[in-house]
Amino acid sequence: MTSVEPTPDLQRNWDNGYDLTDEEKKFVGLHVWVAIAALFIGSLFGPLQAFQYSGLDLYGLLDPVIKSYYQGLTLHGVLNALVWTTFFIVGFTNLTTMKGLGRSLAYPVINKVGFWVMVVGLVTTAIPILTNSATVLYTFYPPLEASWAFYLGLTLVVVGSWIEGVGFYLTFAAWRKDNPGVRSPFIALGGVINAAMWQIATLGVAVEILTMLLPWSLGLIDGTDPALARTYFWFTGHPLVYFWLLPAYVSWYGMLPKQAGGKLFSDSMARLAFWMFLIVSVPVGFHHQFVDPGVPEIWKWIHAILTYSVFFPSMITAFTVIASLEYAGRARGGTGLVGWIRALPWGDASVTSQLLAGILFMFGGIGGLTNASYNLNLVIHNTAWVPGHFHLTVASAVSLSFIGISYWMVPYLTGRQLWKPKVALFQAWTWFVGMIIFSNAMHMLGLLGAPRRTALGDAPYVPESWDGHLLRTSIGGAILLVAVITYVVVIVQTVRSPKVDRELVPTVPVAESLRDPQLTPDWLDRFRPWLIAAGVLLALSYGPQLVDQIFDMRLNAPGTDFTPW
Ligand code: HAS
Ligand code: CU
Known about the structure:
Shape: globular
Radius of gyration: 23 Å
Structural class: mainly alpha
Bound molecules: heme-as, copper (II) ion
Order of helices and strands: HHHHHHHHHHHHHHHHHHH
């Protein structure tokens, strides 16, 4: 294996000099605009919830447009967790596929169709949420019932992302055919693995909506089986979090080292981590159902153990990415145990956002391990701890990384320079500080027993010992509001600034690997064995229990409305 001689020709793989055409840039940009608009609108509701906790209820001001805390919370969850992420990810994967492979999409029309199906789905979902007929939160557990349009819209968003995924596979396959024996470029491979994982993962929610929620909301069946619906939902719901995370990992492994002045420390480890995510992302969903009746303890235990194995590729990532950054810091003249950290380009808003995202993720990851531990989960489940956890993960590791990526990507796509980089830097730090205060307070509240998804400002049972934490939640929320508005201002002003010469516009950063990627073992570059492993593990870990719940299905739960007022 190590006898293959590195050749300059194969190394070219890593920065092939390919520049997206104007039309391709516009297409990627379309995804990013929808994503940022969703983030902006969705994020306005976060602080409203945080303020409500300490007794400042601004929802009254939004009446009659927004009717309740829970309608606002639904908008916040759907727009931020589902729309901002999905549109950004699919747009970014278009870019990494084309740039990584050094070619246009094999069938651009497929991706165009996929994108517009996603947009139609988004509009179809948004209407019932805005008219308060889908106040079901982002997990839409029955028996909470939404308008059929909500379920149909979400299905279309997922189907659109599948169609775009097919576009990525065909492009990847075309490249393979033209480059036999050459290791695939990592940034392209990472995105395609994520698309494949997503297609397997979303089968759960597809079955849930098509066999249960859609016919029910259309009045074709009278009731649902909430226990089975939760099993379907979490089949998709857990891997969903890695669908969000993996594009950030593509950037941390394959782009950030270049931006920081270093190299990818281990191409093999990067690929191994992604393949591990393909096989163990899905069979862990019962760790969201540790307290659900109807799922025997043995399955919960098996999924708890499997969750520890999906912790592993993130540990690989922590070591490999930090090693790549250390290489960069030392190459920039940093010395000593921590001197290399100071030597990293902290003046670059794109790099800083991603470093801060990684630092917050260390804490989010530790919290995840707490959640996954069956007995500890009983303490924190359904408490404010859980939103504390996911604001360090999806709202920090992922979202702050995407923000960092957009600081080079928006200038690249539009042919402009980033507007006031120092303001962008301020934005990244504000997000970091706001999130530390907010999530720490939420974790504390959870340990003290405060329930999640509750308008605590109205709750009569709040003890005095929660007060300080409730106030810190609001302070964190206020700082985050400043951060998100600053972000949108930076992006809008960037797009409004005049076009500049090509040499002044950032290019797509593609990190070279420390060792020739051609030396990476072939089995780390093949889909087939990993897809087979994913299928087998999935059948073993979900099959028997799922079959049991399906045969035992009782469609007898009538729908209820979250907001009777
Ligand atoms: Fe989680 C609940 C377990 C990761 C998101 N999680 C949630 C929910 C969300 C969510 C949204 O087992 C709530 C769902 C709901 O509404 O009910 N989670 C885990 C575990 C991990 C984990 C074991 N979660 C994530 C990620 C998310 C996310 C990632 C979003 C993107 N989670 C759970 C469990 C629950 C749960 C239970 C259910 C709780 C309940 O009872 O309801 C692991 O994957 C975490 C592994 C992470 C690490 C960290 C590695 C650190 C790295 C940083 C490197 C640093 C760098 C910077 C690069 C091991 C890679 C260096 C900087 C320098 C300056 C040098
Ligand atoms: Cu999970």
